[in-house]
Design a protein that fits this description.
The structure holds two protein chains of two kinds. In chain A, 0% of the residues lie in helices and 50% in strands. In chain A, the strands form seven sheets. In chain A, strands 1-28-27-26 form a four-stranded antiparallel β-sheet, with no helix packed on it. Chain A has a four-stranded antiparallel β-sheet with strand order 2-3-4-5, with no helix packed on it. In chain A, strand 12 and strand 13 form a beta hairpin. The two termini of chain A are 19 Å apart. About 3% of the residues of chain A have low confidence. Chain B has a single domain, classed as GMP Synthetase, Chain A, domain 3, CATH 3.30.300. In chain B, strand 1 and strand 2 form a beta hairpin. The chains are: A mainly beta, B alpha+beta. At the A-B interface, loops of A face helix 4 of B.
Chain lengths: 363, 158
């Protein structure tokens, strides 16, 4: 059961470590899901405008309360342009990286070395298609990628670490900024420069994938580019962040594959969180361990939100628990909660550094 | 490059003489002058137009009045007026302005670049592209585009 933090006491985001090495902005960070499992140390991947991916590992010593971090590997031979996104497979053995060079690379963690084991080409008719996001599903059998070419591709992992394209999803009218899988279903969501969020599910007969719902105006929707999405632990709620300076929380309880209704769609708008961010919200992440939502913004701040404990209405509402100004010397591009430790948060910024933070709150 | 110029006969203005700065009253060698719109204008006024052998100032694409600076909040809003309403060079000009300011201003500055209201047929679309950091980053990795930007900035004096 996820322990819900977010009581009424004073909250702090304490700075723990700074990971330096990238020579350009860091676009994304991803915790290895196996971090702190069975004695394994915490491991983080980061991707950058310097065209490399770095793997960082925290030394696991019992003598220090907060052991130091070292850079274990620099993956610099695969991409010829910015590496925009990275995502670990659920068992932590594979890392997918997406780049502006239009390719997706899959790396395998073998012992202490990282080897590039496959390269995906995502090109249509020879156009330039920067890959913006990569995402593994929960079982690790499917990988989704998306691009400025407005499409989303779904790939199936074959024996021998081969990938086969199973579907190309058309529908967005502009670049797709992020793809993300539901935590317990093979349902995919995508966020776009066209200001919409699309929900994709496989047909009943398993023939192909289709767009089951578009979360957009009119009705409820963002009024500018949607940058990221994140599900809560159970997957019954999803949060989105946008250039329109708002977060929106959605009810994602209903399984879209079961949806047969005509009007609207399976998922509903729950609430909008506005008035806190001064510039584009680039990143949002809903912790799987503590129930808190973290955001990273172009106003250099990290903010943390919790479900409002004083809310007596039947609807859901959120309150801001903490605002960390000048979290980075520049835009904050990515925020990610640790998969196991409810206190730890990683962030990445235009300043080229990754920071590890510790969240604390008085009761 | 198209063989037909988008705007074959632009109106050309005189280059405004640089105004003399008044010294500050409390003269302190270590004090950092707040950045104002004149300083920002000085950075962009000599950017060359992609099509014509004139600067953005001479073509009235940018002016000191089209720049708003809030030094305390580290914010710059620069509005530019393309020479014609359907100017397909608008995104390139906007990109040049952004690159020049990124090179010239302290990294703390947040820069918003827009076409002046009513001056372009695809105003909303152009503004959105110019202010999407990811689109800008990807565009600058395109060698052809990046070369065009370098050419426009080459004659800029500062």
């Amino acid at each position: 059961m996820a322990k819900k933090l977010g009581g009424n006491g004073a909250a702090r985001l304490g700075f723990l470590h700074q990971l330096e090495g990238h020579t350009d902005r860091v676009w994304g960070v991803a915790w290895n899901p196996a971090s702190r499992s069975g004695g394994a140390p915490s491991m983080l991947a980061s991707c950058s405008g310097d065209k490399t991916v770095r793997i960082w590992e925290q030394q696991s010593t019992v003598s220090s309360s907060s052991p130091s971090w070292t850079c274990q590997a620099v993956l610099d031979e695969s991409h010829s342009r910015t590496v925009r996104a990275c995502d670990w497979s659920p068992n932590g053995k594979l890392l997918a990286t997406g780049s502006f060079d239009a390719t997706t690379s899959i790396w395998e963690h073998v012992g202490g070395e990282f080897d590039c084991i496959a390269t995906l080409e995502v090109k249509i008719h020879g156009h330039e298609n920067e890959v913006k996001s990569v995402a593994w599903n929960t079982s690790g059998t499917l990988l989704a990628t998306c691009s400025r070419d407005k499409t989303v591709w779904i790939w199936e992992l074959q024996p021998g670490n081969d990938f086969e394209c199973v579907s190309v999803l058309n529908g967005h009218t502009q670049d797709v900024k992020m793809v993300l899988w539901h935590p317990s279903r093979d349902v995919l969501v995508s966020a776009s420069y066209d200001n919409t969020i699309k929900v994709w599910a496989e047909d009943r007969d398993g023939d192909d994938w289709r767009c089951v719902q578009t979360l957009a105006e009119p009705g409820w929707g963002h009024t500018s580019t949607v940058w990221q999405l994140s599900f809560n632990m159970s997957g019954d709620q999803m949060v989105s962040c946008s250039d329109d300076l708002q977060l929106m929380v959605w009810d994602s309880t209903v399984d879209p594959s079961e949806w047969t209704g005509n009007g609207g769609g399976p998922w509903k708008h729950l609430c909008t969180i506005s008035g806190h961010h001064e510039r584009t919200i680039f990143s949002v992440h809903w912790s799987r361990t503590n129930g808190l939502i973290a955001t990273g913004s172009a106003d250099d701040c990290i903010r943390i939100f919790a479900e409002d404990p004083t809310n007596v209405a039947s609807s859901v509402s959120f309150c801001k628990v903490l605002e960390k100004q000048k979290a980075h010397e520049g835009d904050v591009n990515s925020v990610r909660w640790h998969p196991k430790d409810p206190r730890l948060l990683a962030s990445a910024g235009d300043d080229g550094v990754i920071k590890i933070w510790e969240f604390e709150q008085d009761l | 490059m198209a063989s037909q110029l988008i705007n074959a006969n632009p109106v050309v203005h005189e280059r405004k003489a640089r105004s003399v700065r008044q010294p500050t009253s409390a003269h302190d060698d270590l004090a950092v002058e707040p950045i104002d719109s004149l300083e920002v204008f000085d950075h962009v006024r000599d950017i060359k137009d992609p099509e014509h052998p004139y600067t953005l100032e001479q073509l009235n694409v940018v002016s000191e009045d089209s720049i708003a600076v809030d030094d305390k909040r580290s914010h710059v809003l620069i509005t530019f007026t393309p020479t014609v309403e359907h100017c397909s060079m608008a995104t390139l000009i906007g990109l040049c302005i952004r690159v020049k300011l990124m090179q010239s201003l302290p990294p703390r500055f947040k820069i918003d670049i827009k076409v002046s209201p009513g001056s372009h047929a695809s105003e909303v679309a152009v503004n959105k592209q110019l202010n999407d950091k990811e689109r800008v980053a990807a565009a600058l990795e395109n060698p052809n585009l990046s070369q065009m930007v370098d050419e426009c900035l080459a004659s800029s004096e500062e």
